[in-house]
Amino acid sequence: MNNKNSTDKKQRILETAVKLFSQKGFDKTSTKEIAQNAEVAEGTIFFYFKSKKGLLEALLKHSVEIIVQELIINSLDDVLKKEDSKDDKEILKALIKNRLDLIQNNFPLVKIFFSELIYKEDFRSKFIELMTTTGIKVITNYIDKGITEDRFRNINSLIVTRCLVGMIITHIIQNKFVPQILQDYTQDEQIDMMLDLFLNGLLNKPAVN
């Protein structure tokens, strides 16, 4: 079998499965339907993945790589390095916009991953392990650097990171599923307000005597 043709068929099956699983769910999607939409024989799916469950596991493995390596670690580190000469608000704004773009571009995989993450202990454990040992450190290192340089208050960087990540995740969920809540504001305006709150706090500054 031609290697290029083999790779193309396998990729088509994966891409088609992502689309159909995210639209209809795993249980309601048949291998026959995947084969028809991918324009391959149904037997080709079983040749590469052995079963529909094997196909899902291949997708989950791929989505773990995207979520942890690309969405969380590699591109996050790239953004922080690229924007290093800018002020903190611009750095964090670039980071949030980068997260939104990456999740939007990979949303079908992200949707499948987080749906299965609830029920599959092995995937959940791997995700948590990678997040706590690698992903979180990228942000805590940035926060610790700001504390050392006296740009940030001396607060536990893990707590700060949790607040920042929680804010980003909440914004992504709201932006994706209920955008009408803040429809009077552009995305840039929403991010600016979030960062103003994150960097400057909610309380009015006390009057100077």
From TrEMBL:
SUPFAM superfamilies assigned to the protein according to its UniProt record, in alphabetical order: Homeodomain-like, Tetracyclin repressor-like, C-terminal domain
Q: Which domain of life is it from?
A: Bacteria
Q: Which ranges carry the HTH tetR-type domain?
A: 7-67
Q: Which InterPro entries match?
A: DNA-bd_HTH_TetR-type_CS, Homeodomain-like_sf, HTH-type_Tx_Regulator, HTH_TetR, Tet_transcr_reg_TetR-rel_C_sf
* Pfam families assigned to the protein according to its UniProt record, in alphabetical order: TetR_N
Keywords, in A-Z order: DNA-binding
Provide the residue ranges listed under DNA-binding region in this record. Answer: 30-49
Q: Does the keyword DNA-binding apply?
A: yes
UniProt-recorded name of the protein: TetR/AcrR family transcriptional regulator
